[in-house]
Amino acid sequence: MPGRSTRGAAVPERELYVSVDVEADGPIPGPYSMLSFGMAACGTFDGRVFAPDDPAESTFYAELKPISDAYVPESLAVSGLDRDRLAAEGRDPAEAMNAAAAWVAGVTAAAGASPVLVAYPLGFDWMFLYWYWTRFADAGSPFGHSRHLDLKSLYAAKAGAMVTRSTKRQMPAELLSDRPHTHNALDDAIEQAELFHNLFRWTGPSSRADASSAE
User: Fold this and answer.
1) I need a surface site. Which of 13, 18, 35, 50 has the fewest CB within 10 A?
2) Which domain holds residue 174?
3) Which region holds residue 80: left if phi is over 0, alpha if psi is between -120 and 50, else beta?
4) Could you state, in chain order, the average pLDDT of each consecutive group of 10 residues for the chain (215 residues)?
5) What are residue 91's DSSP bridge partners?
6) Name one GO molecular function term (predicted).
7) Residue 106 CB: number of other CB atoms within 10 A?
């Protein structure tokens, strides 16, 4: 059975979406390390009404001690983080992942909702966070093993576009956030939350011709 779960618990009748971003020093967790991650609560949905939240108002950010000596220089350069500094000053992974899980529990309880993780693209960020929560957190992943939403797939479905042609560069400008993409995990989680707001409310291109031109 994947991970640890809370089967049998009552499921709230709405969802709270949490935008996440990860900065890592390699392609996979275990051999390489998640160096930082940011989370921003960005809105609720009850199956009828979407209520966006200001993603800058409720956030979590952590920088972590590396868990191995291995790293890919090109991956490390993306974030600009210093592994030596993090080895000395970063949070212990178990402490950070338990604190992050407690934050998720707190914001979802306040909203009376179930948490759903959102990311663009989902695979990289989910892979690291799920592995770290499963490995280090006392209760495992606060999102279970499947409560997540890939914004790239959501765009492709709404636009009627191929997934391979659903990059941010190929999205209509009105869907994108005005915030810069800084590769600070919290900055980028907030930026991504604004993309999520726009994409969730978007009804798709006005015609198939619009979708073709977006590709």
Assistant:
1) 13
2) 15-201
3) left
4) 51 93 98 99 97 98 99 96 98 99 98 98 98 99 98 97 94 91 94 97 73 47
5) 64
6) nucleic acid binding
7) 13
Q: Tell me, what's the pLDDT at 1?
A: 45
Total domains, the chain: 1
User: The tokens of 142 are what?
Assistant: 């606060």
- What is the DSSP secondary-structure string of 18-47? EEEEEEESSSSBTTB-EEEEEEEEEEEE-S
- Predicted pLDDT at 12: 80
Q: Catalytic site residues?
A: 183
- Cβ neighbour number for residue 68 with a 10 Å cutoff: 12
Contacts of 130 (CB under 8 A, 6+ apart): 3, 141, 143, 145
Nearest alpha carbon to residue 132 among 117, 111, 120, 121: 117
150 inside domain:
yes
Token pair 């993309």 in the structure block, residue: 195
Distance of CA 157 to the CA centre of its chain: 19
CATH of the domain at 168: 3.30.420.10
How far apart, in whole angstroms, are the C-alpha atoms of residue 40 and residue 23? 15
- Burial string for 119-136 (b: 16+ CB within 10 Å, else e) reads bbebeebbbbbbbbbbeb
β-strands 148-150, 34-45 pairing? unpaired
